[in-house]
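hi! just following up on the protien thing from before. the input was this:
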Amino acid sequence: MLPKEQGLYAPAYEHDNCGAGFICSLAGNRTNDIIHKALDILVKLEHRGAVSADGKTGDGAGILIEIPHQFLKNNCPFDLPEPQEYAVGMVFLPRKENQRQFAMAQLEAEIQNQGLDILGWRTVPVDRSTVGAIAAQTEPYIMQVFVGKGTPELSEEHFNLKLFTARKIAEHRIWGSKLSQANYFYLPSLSTRTLIYKGLLVPEDINVYYKDLKDPELVTRLALVHQRFSTNTFPTWDLAQPFRYMCHNGEINTFRGNLSRMQAREELFASELFTAEDLQKICPIVLPGKSDSASMDMVVELLLATGRSLPEVMMMLVPEAWEKHSSMPADKKAFYQYNACIMEPWDGPASIPFTDGKYIGALLDRNGLRPSRYSVTKDGYVIMSSETGVLDIAPENIVKHGRLEPGKMFLVDMDAGRIVDDEEIKSQIVAQKPYRKWLDQHQLPLKDISYTGNPTPTESEDFETRLRLFGYTQEDLKTILQPMIVEGKEAIGSMGTDTPLAVLSDQPQLLYNYFKQLFAQVTNPPLDGIREEIVTDTSLSIGQDFNIFERSTEHAKKLSIQNPVISNEDLDKIKFLEHPDFKATFTRLIRDSTVWKRPLIN
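and the predicted 3d structure came back as:
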């Protein structure tokens, strides 16, 4: 499990970069061969991970499959209902017996509080000798819990909502307890359709450690695999992937800001599908100390609980470059514009395979910085991976090869048995609500507001004083500004900087010098909002947030600003804004002028 914050290490900075892939049968055939092929893909992706000094502890690997109903029915000492009439949870538990029993009791209690039934528990057979010495230090005890609906008329959607609620409450209760092994408790999956086997293992050891994966009775029509590369981070059992609905090869540029926004909107949650008490208990939605990928999966899970479909959720979280896309259909652009008022993008350079058991697919970030390839075969398989060549496929068996395109979604409808075109699935989603009408009624672009005509204050200080006041140096003037003014060129330099941190400097500093870059943490190339305006955007929407469980016109009540750096005249527009949907107030920040000017004397 993650170590505590110490020295220069902080769990909040966990992020990773990995290899991922999936295979499924278009005909919906459930076979053991799919598991073998998926594990073969995983082994081929081993070079995208890392291994510790003991040679056996990997950064994390795993496989997501459909719930193998017949296999479980044959191996459980209790009766199981029909598929989708029960759920299976893979549960990581403390190794200490008394703590394990406490965690199991807490989980059972919360499941029963939701009106559901505990059908039984199954100990997952594992080969502990496979685990590396380092991974063995935090190896959990692994079991499966089986949950019944409680009432036959309960729909699958409401069943999954109750499972989600019970799991979140149990997580918070156990993680907040005084158990010494509380952080061993984790549910990789709790679902009516999917089951996840994962751990702090190298790919070739997954089916050795989990003995179930060697059983020929274990069948599935889809499988999603992931090899983690925990770049500059601490590998743990729970941060191995896949997660409950997705896996992630990449990183999230604005992770810290996204977490803050998620926490801020939690007090607005309201839904008739949850009791007010339960809504309060499931927060915080994003557990502290998790990686960016794990956090994103928790947000996916929340948005699914609001009634949105998995493809719609992925469109919200990883939108296309719609802002400057002149040929994009107006209704699709309206969808993205509306949802930008609700949810900040959880994007960055990333390839994201995802599945809920009904859909399986993947999408690529708007820049296409994590390329992925797919193949469709004549014998009915669809294979997608971070790279080509992960399976040996005879050329004559290929129907087509392709690649994920920036911002596009590759989707397989497992129930319909077909690949759904990007435009088809998105056109259905964007037509669900009158997004353009809502935006036209309520969104207010700053550029459409008339100027106030108020006089702009003139600067009383002379030019050189203002240079010192705003922290300009000779280096800024000669190295940066002069080439831009004279030659129209930007200074070229490395990303490294030996500039002393503002907080450690004994010289006066501007406020923004105290802030340092928190994105581009691993491999991002720098982006230029002017030269790469097609795929970057600097606009923002400000205004009151509303309940994320509702899709209504209220969310469109935002002031739209094209650039976060605005002129005095535009700032005046906002200060004196008169509009039924907006109210502006301002606060004066006063500082003793003698204290402020004293450093300028030197």
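Confidence is low (pLDDT under 50) at residues 519-523, 598-602.
The two ends are 52 Å apart (CA to CA).
cheers
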